[in-house]
């Protein structure tokens, strides 16, 4: 029982996952590696290792390194557009991972494999239709992710998506997109969610391996500093505005092909995260970047967010 006075942040999600706070860390490519995931899980949230485009043997090593850092549960995010998604799915079942989240697609074909391995499956969805579908074939919870998020996004906002998904499915709903503090957590609970997933806030965590240039851009970002590129070919991505996004937008307006645009961004996220190239790299971040203004440990972040949410709920501070 966590909270202040009578207010607890124990929810269906904390009970399902056996975690202390209803806070999940997003499965961010290149960012969500074993150190960040272990730190979030150690702090009482659910840490996630992002498989992204990595082959299974690389992700397996990440899982083992996370296990050396924490005995608490953590998850693996499988990015369904990855050519390695199938081999990663088989590997996580073999490794006995407790929780899998999926993103950027429909995880239907892997569902039997995950359920047979006793894995809790939490697909990220951007619509009511996909939420209903994954719930029907056995999802244990869903992440309802609004277009305020960084990276690959859907069409709906968190404010509109979360209550509609909460009404449509019986499993716990985790709200994502535009959430960065205790106010966001409290608001998500009022929309019918049982917890939140946060990405951008964790990018600047002390335990995050993200290059200091990238962290500095997130820390200094204003509310209107993110842009969405890639809408023309059906893979919209939100990132902080820079030389690369301007060039991309220019080429997109000229009607350049998907292949030409892909060449421009190839390796862009890795360049930004690992090398600190914030001019010609892809600095993925959500709209909440404008609110993220301090580097803290995951424990400090999670405890601050939980205390703020619990305090607001107890004092009816929103009224
Ligand atoms: O997946 C994410 N965020 C991501 S993935 C990523 S790597 C990437 N980089 C460049 C281009 C494309 C991917 C960076 N950020 N979030 C979860 C998420 N899933 N957001 C939206 C969706 C989604 C969208 C449509 C899930 C399912 C869907 O429909 C699938 C279907 O078949 O109905």
Question: What labels would you give this structure?
Answer:
eight-stranded parallel β-sheet, 319 residues, binds ligand TUI, alpha/beta, 14% strand, 14 helices, three-stranded antiparallel β-sheet, globular
Give the fraction of residues assigned to helices.
Answer: 40-55%
Q: What fraction of the residues are assigned to beta strands by DSSP?
A: 5-15%
What's the total number of strands? Answer: 11
- Characterize the main sheet: 8 strands, parallel
**What characteristic shape results from the CA principal axes?**
globular
Order of helices and strands: HEHEHEHEHEHEEHEHEHHEEHHHH
Round the Cα radius of gyration to an integer and report it: 18 Å
Please tally the helical runs, counting DSSP H or I stretches of 4 or more residues.
Answer: 14
Give the strand order of the largest sheet, numbering strands 1, 2, ... along the chain.
1-9-8-6-5-4-3-2
Distance between the termini: 25 Å
Poorly predicted runs: none
Ligand names? ligand TUI
Structural class: alpha/beta
What number is the mean pLDDT? Answer: 96
Structure description:
- There is one protein chain.
- This protein is α/β, with parallel strands linked by helices and 319 residues long.
- Helix content is 42%, strand content 14%.
- It has 14 helices and 11 strands.
- It has helices at 12-17, 34-42, 56-69, 85-95, 111-116, 128-136, 158-168, 182-190, 200-203, 212-220, 243-253, 258-265, 268-275, 298-315, and strands at residues 23-25, 47-50, 74-79, 99-103, 120-125, 142-145, 151-152, 173-176, 195-198, 226-229, 237-240.
- The strands form 2 sheets. The chain has an 8-stranded parallel β-sheet.
- Helix 2 (34-42) packs parallel to helix 3 and helix 3 runs parallel beside helix 4 (85-95).
- The protein is globular.
- The chain starts with 11 loop residues before the first helix and ends with a helix.
- The relative contact order is 0.14.
- The model has no long low-confidence stretch (mean pLDDT 96).
- It binds ligand TUI.
- Residues 29, 79, 81, 103-106, 124-126, 130, 145, 151-154, 235, 237 line the site of ligand TUI.
